[in-house]
Amino acid sequence: MIWQEFSGLRFDGKQWTIDKRVKGHGRLFERTGFGKEEAEQAQQRFHALMSVALAEGQRHTAGVMTFNEAAARQLREATKRSVERDMYALQRLVPSIGHLLLAEIHQGTLQPYIEQRRQAGIKSGMIARELTVVRRILTLASRLWRNADNQPYLPVPPLLALPDWEDEAVPYPLSWDEQSALCAALPRPDGLVRGEHRAP
Fold it and tell me: Does residue 99 share a domain with residue 45?
């Protein structure tokens, strides 16, 4: 049986609650949903969460960062106008490589992602733009960001080969019908869509 005074795990009258501060991680808090008679399950849940939090705390203490953490920092600190495009790219990248440490990211670990996107019919130019975001984050981790010991999170950013399968669309002159359709869709100089009239 687990008693209420068990460090970090207490029964609040309705359920077992985890509430503990972990060095390098911060506050660990969760209402487990386990009732008074489910103390053993609550303790198992506590130890599972503590294991993850301690590992994360050790990484932070050692100045190690995952790609997911680096991506979140880049989005928080970004000031460029294309941050929305970066966010779009990261939404696709993070599920594949977010769990990796920065030192584990290189051409080899990115290749499965590249192949997956290619098989999905994505053009090499789009994939190259996504990998440019990865390269930017790795460069920041190496040249700008510093951990608590004033050391870079990554000693040297890896070289990344951007794909180019020469699959870009070939430009061609518009037909007269296409030109007419394009001109009809363009706004007028006064800001109205063609066919609209400003109210008197």
Answer: no
